[in-house]
Amino acid sequence: MEGVAVHLIKGKISREFVIDFTRLHEQWGYDSVLVGYYAAAAEGFGIALYAATHTERIKFLIAHRPGSVAPALAARQVATFDQLTQGRMSLHIIAGTSDQDQASEGDFLPKQDRYRRAGEYLDVMRRMWTSEVPFDHQGQFYRVEGAYSDVKPYQQPHPTLFFGGSSEGALQMGAEHCDVFAIFGEPLSETQDRLDDFRRRAAKFGRTPNFNMSLRTIMAPSEGEAWDKAHALLADIERKTGTAPKPTNHSSERLVGFAARGDVHDERLWMGIARATGAPGNTSCLVGTPEQIAAAVLQYYRLGIHSFLLRGFENPQDTIAIGRDLIPLIKAGAEAIDRQAQAAE
Question: Are residues 166 and 235 in the same domain?
Fold first, then answer.
């Protein structure tokens, strides 16, 4: 899984880039691509549907912000996309981005309230996807009367729901309503603690969650060359950014905290970029040869993280390298771990 970028030239979308970049992921063995969300970006469902019509199998994890549209309409949008692509989608729920970005879309609800609204939003959506008769709903944030959707999702009961976040509000919402907890790369010990904690939270609602981890790769034929690349990249970023900005959310604070303890954790997890940038997003890096990075990813797989969002820093070169040199190693290693686990049962 990797993020799909959209080239905009004077406000115009490069259709050729969307097609070519998505096909590149499909060609090199990616299972899915992330279509991100921020207030000024091109609309994600439109980008993903256009890309889907020009590819055959690759899936789309579409970031979605509850509150930007009414939940009844969003439920029909999701179901329509899922039907037209025959199940080639998942939904990433983003409820807690920056107040400034929210305000630019006319949303001034405080962050903690946005998580509570997201939970109610997902309640309404789920009923739209599953109810065979019209229903009423009156909650704190939404009210519908006679709500119903003729179109139901292709995937039953609905596409997989991802979420991310480290605040108490995010964890509460995700434990109750979502299927996959998406986290950034952290040291193995702390990752184990996070997974255990979230499993306990989800169990209170009768749920068994899955997990996703975002990592950035810096690969080279030798370990020394990989670290040289990492340090050159860091020097370039530090020249451009100067003093690192302060973290803007709980997840960023966690990453910057790990960076303060040291740039390198568990031999291969490198937090230099997180330290230099304030960790505004996916800044946890694995540095080494493809074999070394695959081994590091599989350590997380053994903890119970069974999907990974992998991206590099230079595209399309890194997109190709990850697909050609890394993904086959990870998939083969995961299959071997699964066989060992089955044999031990």
Answer: no
Q: In this structure, are 109 and 250 located in the same domain?
A: no
Final residue before a domain boundary, out of 178, 200, 230: 178
* End position of a domain, from candidates 133, 150, 178: 178
In a domain, 197, yes or no: no
Mark whether 120 and 226 lie in a shared domain.
no
List the domain range (segments joined by +) for residue 269. 214-345
In a domain, 193, yes or no: no
Inter-residue long-range contacts of 107-113, CB under 8 Å, 24+ positions, other chains counted: 107/67, 107/68, 109/67, 111/167, 111/169, 112/167, 112/169
pLDDT tens by residue, the chain, 345 residues: 555 555 666 688 999 999 999 999 999 999 999 999 988 889 999 999 999 999 999 999 999 999 889 999 999 999 999 999 999 999 999 987 778 888 888 888 998 899 999 999 999 999 999 999 999 999 999 999 999 999 999 999 999 999 999 999 999 999 999 999 999 999 999 999 999 999 999 999 999 999 999 999 999 999 999 999 999 999 999 999 888 888 888 899 999 999 999 999 999 999 999 999 999 999 999 999 999 999 999 999 999 999 999 999 999 999 999 999 999 999 999 999 999 999 998
- Shared domain for 36 and 125, answered yes or no, is yes
How far apart are alpha carbons 324 and 345 in whole angstroms? 33
Strands 210-219 and 180-184: parallel
Together in a domain, 158 and 240:
no
* Domain CATH for 161: 3.20.20.30
